[in-house]
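Sample log: BTB domain-containing protein.
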Amino acid sequence: MAETPEPSIYEKAFAKSDVTDAILVVEEKKLHVNKALLSCHSDYFKTLFNSDFKEKSMEEIPIEDVKLEDFATVLSLVNPIRIEPTNERIAELLKVADRFLLPSAKRQLELFLMTSTHYSHEKIEWADMYNLDELLKHTLNKFPNKNAFFFLPSSFSQLKEKTKATIFDRFLVVQRKEDPRANHRSDRGKRPGFG
């Protein structure tokens, strides 16, 4: 007689309980969730559970094109039992949080990234891609001097205009700290009472 395999940490975090009322199936594994909780945190799930889609009446709702570990980790960030994100999976976790419209989970991932050991250029690219404004500011505030800005990769030309403006603003702040004369020069030509 074959033994039943031990449930993974992902299945344990989403075990059936007296507060779960829906089952999401990812990679043939069942995750028991609370519809109201997920609907509160995600417009995706609010629509899925409350609109006139076929999934609304299904006992088990399949979730396609996502890895169990990524999906469960992201969902856990808005659930009572939390699975800690890892540096190795952060890019995938951000995609999942974005795809399933989970701003609370995305914020948790942003806070995680602020203390992670990822390179600054990676953090800036993720901040740009997923609109993580606090991560962008936090990362730029770590640049020790204006020379650090010159090591940004050439792919930065692909960033959104808003991100480029934030980088440039921070560069000017750092430059003014390094060269106080820049402040004096920028005051030249101003008429009294203006600016």
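Observation: The chain has two domains: 1-115, 118-186.
Observation: Residues 161-178 form the longest helix (18 residues).
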